Amino acid sequence: MGNDKRRHPRYEGDVAAWVAWSDEAGRKRHLMGRCVDVSVSGSRIELASSIQPGTAVTVGIPRLSLTVSAAVRHCRDAGGRFSVGLEFQERVIMAKQE
User: Fold this and answer.
1) Which pLDDT score is estimated for 96?
2) What is the CATH number of domain 11-88?
């Protein structure tokens, strides 16, 4: 974490997640993926398809009992999958992991 300038610590994990949004044509879209890390202000999700940066989404991480509105900040090709950086529209309360 030497060069990490994040405001909040990220917690690594590998748990199921889903992302829902409306595309440019107004069609509802929904993808299942994996939550790679999460903090009180955002998350990184790996998905099979890309999502345009700036897109408003709803993200769910059932294992954390979390459903929250977010904005896509970046989407990068990660070798056949896409690494999607999300900024939550509100801070979430996270229980300390034991």
Assistant:
1) 47
2) 2.40.10.220
